[in-house]
Amino acid sequence: MKRRFWGILTTKAQPFSKWWQEFRAEVAVIPMEDPLDPIVFVDDRVLTVRTGYHNRRNAILVPLMMVYSFFSILALNDLLPDFESKQEFAHEMLEYVEQQRALANPSYRTDDIERRYKALLDENGEVTWSTYLRAKELEGQLESLMDDFLFLCFFLLPNISMWVIFFLKPRDAEVYFDRQRKIVYSWRHGRVGAAYFDKMGLIENQVGINLVLQFENKKQKGYHPMAIVGIDTGKLTFHTEADTTYPLAQILAFMDHGKSAVITGPSFKRKPAKFFWRVDPKPDNFEQRVNAALEAEGDFVHQYQTRWVKGHAI
Predict the structure, then answer these.
(1) Contact (Cβ atoms closer than 8 angstroms) between residue 210 and residue 219
(2) Most distant CA pair in the chain: distance in Å?
(3) What span, in angstroms and rounded, lies between the C-alpha atoms of 51 and 283?
(4) Residue 296 neighbours by CB under 8 Å, 6+ apart
(5) Measured distance CA(95)–CA(103) in Å, rounded
(6) Among 165, 206, 180, 175, which Cα is nearest to 61's?
(7) Which long-range CB contacts under 8 A does 61-65 form with residues at least 24 apart?
(8) What is the torsional sign of CA 284, 286, 292, 297?
């Protein structure tokens, strides 16, 4: 089976139904006790799949977060001065200058030392950020200090962003395939998306399976196609058509024949991904909003076939 698999730059979708006959003819789905990732739940009515965000989070985000944290701490340690020790040393050097002058034996550097360390102290004899920067400017090292600050920002700003994502990004809601109603639905950060199964869009690329549903706009005053990105097949990335074929065939088999085509038991439920602080909460008035998204179908299929489909990976 040869489907449109253009890679990560694929921007437009095709209806999954376009390949149904080929899936039915060419792919044999075997019922299993564990139907494998990304399937999470199966019963008489519903099959659900999860995105691979938890895998990308643990294999990419967390290691990068640790690396950036380490270098941020090193850069911050080099940048932040010890004001107390600098203040103590400045007073010692000014006393040294006074002693040299009292002995009538000042060196050619005495005036320079006095100027530098007086610049480091304020009127109360203390070192502050203002006096520290003034002294650095006098020494001609202010530009080097700014370079160190930019180096810190290079690590610190991405690191803060990654920590914010780690703590605030919830576990993705699963994608629900309702066999009785022949619909697909899910939600992302308060926005509901749904489509009839035969109208659902599909993009396959290196990050896995990307399903296109009709999603609410941010203020729930309209709808547009949006992709649920990165439904993986047990591997992190570099998916091929061979990797995504069987999970798609399982979904189609369930919608055609029910749970007996996919699992051997009465139902199946996979343990949820660990180490998330919260899950994406189910929106209020959910059933009514699913129905509204289905009724607003309009030219949904034409839109995702002809326009760039935005995804929701984070």
Answers:
(1) no
(2) 103
(3) 19
(4) 214, 223
(5) 12
(6) 165
(7) 61/162, 61/165, 61/166, 62/166, 64/162, 65/159, 65/162, 65/163, 65/166
(8) positive
- For the chain, percent of residues with pLDDT exceeding 70: 93
Q: For 17-55, give one letter per residue: b (16+ CB within 10 A) or e.
A: bebbeebeeeeebeeeeebebbbbebeeebbbbbbbbbb
Query: pLDDT digits over 227-247, tens only?
Result: 998 898 877 777 778 889 999
Our CA angle for 156, 310, 54, nearest 5°, is: 55
Query: Does an H or E element contain 226, and which?
Result: strand 223-231
Residue 152 one-letter amino acid: L
Which residue bears the tokens 């000014």?
94
The span from the CA of 111 to the CA of 226, in Å, is 70
Picking from 164, 160, 224, 162, the residue whose alpha carbon sits closest to that of residue 188 is: 224
What is the residue whose two structure tokens read 């940048």? 79
Q: Which of 2, 11, 37 is nearest to 210 (CA)?
A: 11
By residue count, the chain amounts to: 314
The identity of residue 268, as a single letter, is F
The whole-number pLDDT of residue 194 equals 96
Neighbours of 176 (CB within 10 A): 19
Peptide bond into 38 cis (omega under 30): yes
Q: Can you spell out the DSSP letters for 161-217?
A: HHHHHHHHPPBPPPEEEETTTTEEEEEETTEEEEEEGGG-EEEEETTEEEEEEEEEP
pTM for this structure?
Answer: 0.81
**Of 137 and 108, the one with more pLDDT:** 137
Residue type, 6: W
**118-127: per-residue pLDDT in tens?**
777 777 778 7
CA dihedral of residues 207, 211, 216, 217 (deg, nearest 10): 40
* β-strand partners of 210: 203
How far apart are the C-alpha atoms of 74 and 42, rounded to whole Å? 49
